[in-house]
Structure formats: C-alpha cells, structure tokens
Predict the structure.
Amino acid sequence: MHRIFKELRNIQNVRVALEQELYKVRSVRIDLEKELHNAQRLVSIRKPLSVYGGPVPASDNSEIVIPWFDPAEFVGVLQKTINIFRNRMTFSVSGKDGVIYFTPNVIYNSFKELADEKDAPEALLYESGEDRARLLIFITDKMREYGAIVENSIRPGYFSAQYNVMSRGSEGKIGFAPYFADVFPGINLATLEKEKGTNIKAIEIGEPVSIRAAA
C-alpha cells in the first residue's frame, strides 16, 4: 500500500511539473506574439488616432483579424456585466428605452475574459493606447454587423458615443456603446430596473451630445 501511495505522489509531482512547463510555454508564446505584433507596427506607417480613439484608416482597422471572435459568445460574457458599477469609467446601465449602455472599459474587459477562456493572446496584444482603440473599433464593427448596437449611434471608425449623464445632481459626459437589450437572452427590463444597485440607480442617461470615441 505504501508503494502505491508513493507512486501516486510521483505521478502528482510529474503532473505539477508538466503544468508548470505548459505555463512557461504559453508565456513564451504570448511574448513572441507581442514581439511580432510590435515589429509589424514598426514597419508600417499608420495615421495617428485622435485623442478620442478614432477614426482610423480602413487599411489599419482591417489588419485586425480574430478568427475565434463570436458575437453570440461575446453577448453572453457582456450580459454578466449589466448594471454592475466598478468605477466611474467602468460600468454599464440599462435604460428604460430598451437600450443597455456599456463604457468602453466594460467592452474591453469582457473581450479579455472571453480571450482568457480561449487561451488567446489578443487582449494582451491590444491592451493599451491606439491598439486598444483599434480593438474596440473591431469589436464595434462586428457587433454592429450582428445587430446588437443601436443604429446610427456610433459612427463607423469609432467605438463609442458621448452621452449626457446625470448622477446625484451632477452632470457630465461619458462615452458609451449602446446595445439593444433584446440581444441578451432572457433580459427583462422591468426586472433589471428593480434590481439596480444604489450607484447604478443614481445614473440617468440623457441624449447623445456627439458621436465620437471616448476612453
């Protein structure tokens, strides 16, 4: 019996060692892909984005190819964030108009979660600055084709539109990507309204003030 336990421990140790090596291989792969991505950027000439993240030349935007991206799967991940408040730039809020408003940070974080589930490196490759803006535009274009984004709300080449926002007597402007509520399975707007937390309940979305990207 002691021999059997010893063999089981040896097998467990080998398994742990293999998992550690697999993690190292994945890390090296991500590093190599990031290096390749950076090298491709250095050899290309690209028109800079505005401070609002758009527009970008069509040739630049077309360089992003993510074969595994599935709008239906993305909707499933995004649905888990509805009416959750992280901070003033990372939240989503359901409106009584049949629209759910997501800040760009929520869109990116949901993409990152989906990428992590698939062990895909794109969230790291496009994690900041111009690269993140281009990724968000890619997502916006795909979700517009899917019929999730409110028509004429976000101009092509942009990833959000600015809206007037009221909260506890203060007014400001925040960029949102407005999605139709009915693309999310089983959504009931009355239930969402009833279950809003204190921070989300205090937020009131007004009319869009302009169509532009906002971080």
